[in-house]
Predict the structure.
Amino acid sequence: MSDNGCVKCGSHDASKKEVAMTGTGLSKMFDVQNNQFIVVYCNSCGYSEFYNKKSSTASNILDLFFGG
């Protein structure tokens, strides 16, 4: 991980999880969760960043969160 830490509090304690969300139009009406993201969040202050799972080619998403 980078030496920068969280952009809000400087903590190096972060976690990640995958989430899915609906879009607009018919997918929202039928609750089709076709948008997939990886959420990286600081365990200390709660600051979060969303990364598109399909377009993310980074080997380590946590490095992106910490500015690495």
